[in-house]
Design goal:
- The protein is mainly α and about 700 residues long.
- Helices cover about 60% and strands about 5% of the residues.
- The strands form 2 sheets. Strands 3-4-6-5 form a 4-stranded mixed beta sheet, with helices on one face.
- Strand 1 and strand 2 form a beta hairpin.
- The model has no long low-confidence stretch (mean pLDDT about 90).
Length: about 700
Amino acid sequence: MPLLRDLLPLLAIQSTLLIATLVLGPGNLADVRVQLTWTGFVALGWLIAPSWVGSHSSLIRRHLAAMISAVALHGLLAFAASLLGFGMNTYLAIWAVGLLSAGICRREHLGRALPTAIGLPGGHGVLILTLIVFSVCVYRTPRSNDIHQFLLQQQDMLEHASLRVSSIGMSAMEVDQPMPRWRSHYWHSLPGMIAYTSGIAVDQVLLRYATIPVAFSVLLCLAEVLRSLAGKRVSYPFVLIAMLGPILLWYRNFNAFNYSFRITNNLLLDKDIALFFLIPSTLWLAQGWIHGKSRYCIPLLGLLPALVRFHPLTAIYLLLLIAPLGILVTPADRTGIRRTATLALATLLLCVAVVLIGDAQSNHEQIRQIIQIDYEASLDRRPIHYWVGFYNTIPGTALPCDTTEWVGDRFHLKHSLITGCGLLATMHLGVLVLGVRVLLGKCTGRTRRLLGSGLSTIGVLWGMWLVSGIFLTRYPHYAAGYERLHWFAYPIASTVVAPAIASCMPRRGRRKIGTALLVFITVSAVAFRFEIATPLKNIRGLNSLLDVEIAGMSQRRANWQTIPSTRTLDDLRPHYLQPSDRALLLAKESTQHYWLMRQGVFWSDPYVEAFAWFHRGDNFRTDRRYFYDLLDRQNVSGLAEWIAKKDITLIIDLREGGDRFLDQLSRQHNLPMHRVEPGVWRIDRPRAPTSFDNAVK
């Protein structure tokens, strides 16, 4: 059957991934359900891809085109759902109809065309198997930095089977709309759809079950994009070592602002899927369109909703990449130059549109004031309540920060953002190697283009560092966005490093060296899975992030193994929580409790608080003062009146000494309440008179 034969490579890849997950994971039935759902997601793109990428593309290129098609369709459907208000059932119906229609059209095309089949060439097959093993071993329980920021919304969207952005938690702040940053939710709606389709709780989908298939698809696509940008003379193993070398060999710095950290983070987070799939795929499509493949403009346009609403900084990164990409791929003819200029103008307009839409963090002045208030309170021996990096915008603070520092009266980016990142530091060496080859005349036109692209990227990187002292000193509240602008360089850096490494290898031995590199990557991943440190740990100058992460991975795995795959959102609902309750949560981790936040009163987050302050003014400041005085267990006055005004019925303090503190609070403020369970106290409201009471009177 032609259609089945056409789908067979995709099914073979996904089946191998599932088997590896079940064996190495170890996996369970939830993995089967989630990966079948993911296969259905990619399958629609697989059937559509030949209409614009061609029927004779390689297996890996077909997979890249399939992912681009599927993600573009998802972005378009998420946009339509947000605009028209249809829910998850309608999304699934549209996807099923699309899958059926694409299958029929593809079958008819295959019936008319000459028989073709996508084989599994040895090099491609070994590369795919290497990435399968790496994904299963490394992304079973990834670090998942920042993933909880959007979990409440994903749970709420799933609870209501809706694809519209949720404003859960804002009602606690007496604001009835979502914070602007939350509106960039198109990617985050996809795990909700996977959870809805598979029947697995969305937090488990996010943190355990979808991490492997998503990581594998992203890494495979990234390898194809980088090889296409680097040139066909660079084989896949050298591309792979350029991608994974900063993790396995020349890892340098453990913080959330470098390449090694981000690419091993949970790729279900918006910023990471944008960095490692959306932006590279856009560059690949742009390269194809510039080179005369006119059909590539169709998926390029289809990705617009994703470019706008996956992550707000995506358009900024693309704008910074215009010059390096133009140098790398623009042919010396009028058509190519005209198309590059068109893309540059389109990217500039896209940036303007994103700024006007306003999905990035807003209310910067309120954020800055909140941080200032909290820092000044900490000088009176009270704890700070937010991420420590926020406070470095205040002159004279001694709190540590990985990204910025005050030098005299000027606020600067740290140069370690560039020199401390394994990939960006290696890019400088790669540019040096390519430069030497150009000077010696041992180069092609492609090498010169790679050198020019790398030099322009380095120029932009150090230019941002140089002007940071002027810009950030004047606008310190923009530091949170400025400190991550260097991420734009990742695709160009890997593209430069791969041919630089390949050019240092003897031509006759490159095949054997490439095989050795794939074996090394596989062995490193398997050792990590079984918590075995690699020999690199004892070699000075070589470092593996996986060796550093063994203890953390082991703890995350142990935590998740205690959670049954059948657990649902309803199972998390506290037995004591009544529909009419309003809960005051005195815990820093309150944002992880969906049912309590749904009925909560106030919560600790500077962005949310700034948004509420903007809308409510001084009334918000009153609420904030009461909340943080209680959170810090300070003396407060007028507490009973405030609690009555906020209609609070539950006070929850699960920290050590919580019961003692709440009992003391009840006595000091003549606030009648009783203990429901450890750390949970219910306020006793005066009982309304009944008809029996009136009769007795």
